[in-house]
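To the wet lab folks,

You asked to see what we're planning to order before we commit. Fair enough. Below is the target structure as tokens, and below that is the sequence we designed to fit it. If anything looks off to you, flag it before the synthesis order goes out.
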């Protein structure tokens, strides 16, 4: 037998008027205008996919336990009704516990797999279009997609300028490629390297993979910049 409106209500799922919902003044999630705009665009594109968790108050209204930002976005867009999971007349402490349990039971993102998904999506949608509803700006999406096309095999063979083994007894994990390059190339590489570390979680020990970064680029003495990042006053 399929689910009926009554059986769904018995499970806690209901459709309630937006005007009967009130935000939790104890909500601990921060505010971010940029993300709020993206959330609104997300809901405009996909509708309400995630339900809002509420508890019934003595006043007859329903306090939002989880979904305060979705509530704001839906109200701003003009939704008249919301799909909720009603926990009933639970205590404030129980509501706060549910909020933390449902908000914080998250899993780490595999950055490489995320980049692959973004690359797949980019085959059908432009980066600018993706950035409207995703929590990244166009540059961040492009950086993640571009990582997939980087040719790491170019470092498989010994380069002409030298290939240094890690010093015995040191904490170094990777071999270091030492090359002479123009100052402009070195500046671009340093910035690209930092961006890769940020995107791929290189500095985060909880990640399940390691990304081998070339740690040193040797410049000819005459090309050595006074400011390694090339920033001017």
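Sequence we intend to order:
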């Amino acid at each position: 037998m399929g689910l009926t409106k009554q059986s769904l209500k018995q499970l806690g799922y209901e459709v309630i008027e937006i005007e009967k919902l009130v935000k939790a003044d104890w909500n601990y999630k921060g505010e971010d205008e940029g993300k709020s705009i993206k959330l609104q665009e997300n809901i405009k594109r996909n509708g309400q996919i995630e339900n809002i968790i509420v508890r019934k108050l003595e006043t007859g209204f329903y306090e939002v336990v989880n979904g305060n930002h979705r509530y704001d976005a839906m109200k701003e867009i003009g939704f008249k009704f919301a799909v909720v999971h009603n926990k009933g007349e639970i205590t404030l402490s129980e509501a706060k516990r549910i909020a933390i349990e449902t908000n914080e039971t998250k899993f780490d993102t595999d950055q490489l797999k995320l980049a692959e998904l973004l690359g797949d999506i980019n085959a059908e949608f432009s980066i600018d279009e993706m950035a409207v509803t995703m929590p990244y700006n166009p540059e961040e999406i492009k950086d993640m997609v571009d990582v997939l096309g980087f040719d790491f095999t170019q470092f498989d063979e010994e380069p002409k300028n030298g290939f240094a083994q890690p010093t015995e007894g040191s904490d170094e994990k990777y071999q270091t490629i030492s090359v002479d390059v123009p100052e402009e190339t070195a500046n671009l590489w340093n910035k690209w390297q930092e961006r890769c570390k940020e995107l791929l979680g290189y500095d985060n020990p909880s990640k399940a993979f390691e990304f081998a970064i070339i740690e040193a680029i040797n410049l000819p003495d005459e090309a050595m910049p006074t400011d390694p990042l090339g920033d001017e006053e």
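Structural context that might help your review: The beta strands are 13-17, 21-22, 52-56, 62-66, 81-86, 163-164, 176-177. The chain has a mean pLDDT of 80.

Thanks,
Computational group
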